[in-house]
Amino acid sequence: MYRLSKMRFGFPIGLFLLLFVDGSVSQVFSRQMFNTPSVMVSHLVVLWLVCGVLFEENMAMPLVKWAAVIGAVFDLYYTGIFGVYIFVFPLVVYLTRQLVNYISPNFLSGLLIYFIDITIVEALSFVASRAVHMTSMSGSSFLVNTLGPTLAFNLAMFVILYFPIRWVYNWLK
């Protein structure tokens, strides 16, 4: 079914489009998003991947492969080196699929799953940055100044974009 649908081409196009929208949002709103000491990080790529799991229903899409590809591109495009996202994005897809087995996918459960996924993405990114001494921020500082604002921004983006993304997925099917 996946091979014969528009989803075969639409999903990667949307994924790469949101990769660049992530950077554009960060650039355009850099004064508001990166105001010291608080930092808000846009994760629209994760939103597209999570929605891919929520809306795939009976259409088995190769989301883990696309997550690894976009993780590699994300790392190389934004940091210049292979980093944590090449592993974190496929982990997010796997975790979301596991959660969807126990929770019926709808708007509120999707919001909860996205909350969990963003927390994992940011926490693993923080742990990796601490491991290679890219940051000296304490854990409590990370929770208050980075994780909290990032969750607020991304959950607001989920609320705003959930129904348009669902419409796009239905159109692509």
From TrEMBL:
Subcellular location, principal: membrane
TM region positions: 36-55, 67-95, 107-129, 141-165
Cellular compartment(s): Cell membrane
Keyword tRNA-binding: no
Highest taxon, organism lineage: Bacteria
Keywords: Cell membrane, Cell shape, Membrane, Transmembrane, Transmembrane helix
Membrane topology: Multi-pass membrane protein
Protein family per UniProt: Belongs to the MreD family.
Name of the featured protein: Rod shape-determining protein MreD
Species name: Levilactobacillus fuyuanensis
Gene: mreD
